[in-house]
Design goal:
The protein is built from two helices and eight strands. It is of the alpha+beta class. The protein has one domain: PH-domain like. The termini are far apart. Pfam families: DUF956.
């Protein structure tokens, strides 16, 4: 019998498998709803769901390859300047839904390893 954890969202718009990087890799579900972004652990004994209200999410960074393809990993930057990293095969769909709430201009490309060199040569 599977234990259903209570969700903080009263209405769920999108739900998919995902991974959270919280010092250790945690598998579970990413849930997008009317109240915010939520991560539900696969193992219910791990604790309560991780929940961020839409107002607490300042922006999102997405990994983009050199060829311009959207990567599977993305980070949410909170108003406390904390950065929480997630991964999902459906990252494009997730970020489209997140953009509806935090604004399209707040979905930015994550800095790559080559960015410091590019900035040095632009000067």
């Amino acid at each position: 019998m599977r234990t259903i954890l209570a969700t903080n969202n009263s209405e769920i718009f999108y739900e998919t498998k995902g991974t959270a990087y919280l010092g250790v890799v945690e598998n579970g579900k990413i849930i997008l709803g009317d109240a915010g972004f939520e991560f539900e652990y696969k193992n219910p004994r791990r604790g309560q769901n991780i929940f961020f209200t839409w107002s607490s999410i300042k922006s999102a960074e997405v990994d983009v390859s050199i060829s311009g393809k959207l990567g599977q990993q993305f980070s949410l930057i909170l108003d406390t300047q904390a950065k929480v990293r997630f991964s999902s095969k459906d990252s494009g769909s997730i970020l489209k839904k997140v953009a509806e709430y935090v604004g399209k201009e707040n979905i930015v490309r994550a800095p790559s390893l080559l960015d410091p060199f590019r900035r040095a040569f632009k000067k």
